[in-house]
Design a protein that fits this description.
Low-confidence stretches: none
Helix content: 40-55%
Mean pLDDT: 88
CATH topology of the largest domain: Nucleotidyltransferase, domain 5
Order of helices and strands: HHHHHEEEEHEHHEHHHHEH
Strand content: 5-15%
Distance between the termini: 38 Å
CATH superfamily of the largest domain: Ribonuclease H-like superfamily/Ribonuclease H
Largest sheet: 5 strands, mixed
Number of helices: 13
CATH class of the largest domain: Alpha Beta
Number of domains: 3
Radius of gyration: 30 Å
Number of strands: 7
């Protein structure tokens, strides 16, 4: 408080109420006025029992087990020390809930920060469900997109989900896009069709570098997740399930055509993915800049600041680190 912090902020840091601070300041010598428990709890754990819980939990047979399994195993030997909740409470007091065994806890490293500065440098792909009219039956949409341009480069709708179908789609897409060996990185999650032996062998044959998300972390594959949201929340998405595979294929074909050639994507300065994939976006954005400058010259009093920034996005990052995200956000704010 002497350094200029407010009373409320200081009390918040100390985790005490402002009224408590005021009472202490009024009478610093006053003792704790709380009555506390009148009678001791007769059934509380003794110090010996607490120590036994700690020793048993850290012993060789039980150091890798959670309290539920420890209590069950002890019961099999005719031993009862305390309940599961008591085990949790005691272990929490001595900070032993996180990791008790001698082995190191699992550390999952974040995926590598990938940078796309041109089309067909980084692809992202995933599989999503399309509901059919038969309960419990689904169609599977395999979708590959270019991270730099957001262009859908390959897709297929199948009745099953398998690594063989994934490998075939990847081979066809690389051929249609004329991918040179060693030029492409393919990012995906950790599903079976993505990491199966057939799929990995195909990637090795095509000289495509695989990249994978962390287990159970959906944010590591954001471009594909965003694309699936656009697909399933667009106004044209059918209100009723697909009757058959042909109906699903026909609808996805229309969506891909609209998305690639008509959809103005907010992540690439509102140009279509096809225009950016074919490197036509720079000319479009130059024309927009000229239009805005002409409008400002015609009515300068309507513009208090600079015109809208239509400069093209030169690179796209996949899974940037925390510091990189902060820098990207600063650049976006400056551009706005």
């Amino acid at each position: 408080m002497l350094a200029g912090a407010s009373r409320a902020a200081s009390c918040n840091v100390l985790e005490i109420a402002v009224r408590t601070f005021e009472r202490w300041k009024k009478d610093p010598n006053k003792c704790d006025g709380r009555a506390g428990p009148v009678n001791p709890i007769p059934h509380q754990l003794t110090s010996e029992e607490k120590q036994m819980i700690i020793e048993v939990s850290n012993s060789q047979p039980y150091q890798d087990l959670n309290p539920w399994k420890i209590v069950a195993k002890l019961a099999d030997f005719g031993i009862f020390i305390a309940s599961e909740s008591s085990f949790y409470r005691v272990l929490k007091e001595v900070n032993l809930l996180k990791h008790r065994s001698k082995s190191s806890p699992r550390v999952v490293k974040p995926p590598k920060d990938l940078i796309a500065a041109r089309p067909n440098q980084i692809w992202s792909w995933d599989i999503t469900y399309l509901v059919s009219s038969v309960k419990g039956r689904y169609f599977y949409l395999y979708l590959i997109m270019d991270v730099y341009s957001r262009y859908i480069v390959g897709w297929t709708v199948e009745e099953t989900e398998s690594m063989e179908l994934s490998a075939n789609l990847m081979a066809r897409t690389c051929q249609s896009e004329q991918i040179e060996p060693g030029d492409l990185t393919l990012h995906s999650d950790n599903g079976g069709p993505m990491k199966g032996a057939t799929m990995l062998a195909t990637l090795q044959k095509l000289s495509v570098v695989p990249s994978f998300s962390r287990p159970s972390v959906s944010d590591d594959n954001p471009f594909s997740e965003s694309l699936f949201r656009t697909l399933k929340y667009c106004p044209a998405y059918p209100e009723k399930p697909f009757d058959d595979l042909r109906a699903a294929i026909d609808w996805v074909e229309k969506f891909v055509s609209w998305y690639n050639t008509e959809h103005l994507h907010s992540g690439i300065k509102f140009v279509t993915p096809q225009a950016r994939h074919r490197c036509q976006d720079e000319k479009i954005l130059v024309n927009r800049t000229a239009v805005y400058e002409a409008a400002r010259a015609a009515n300068p009093r309507r513009w208090s600041k600079q015109t809208r920034n239509w400069s093209p996005i030169t690179e796209v990052r996949l899974n940037p680190g925390k510091e990189t995200k902060i820098e990207i956000e600063k650049l976006r704010n400056q551009a706005a």
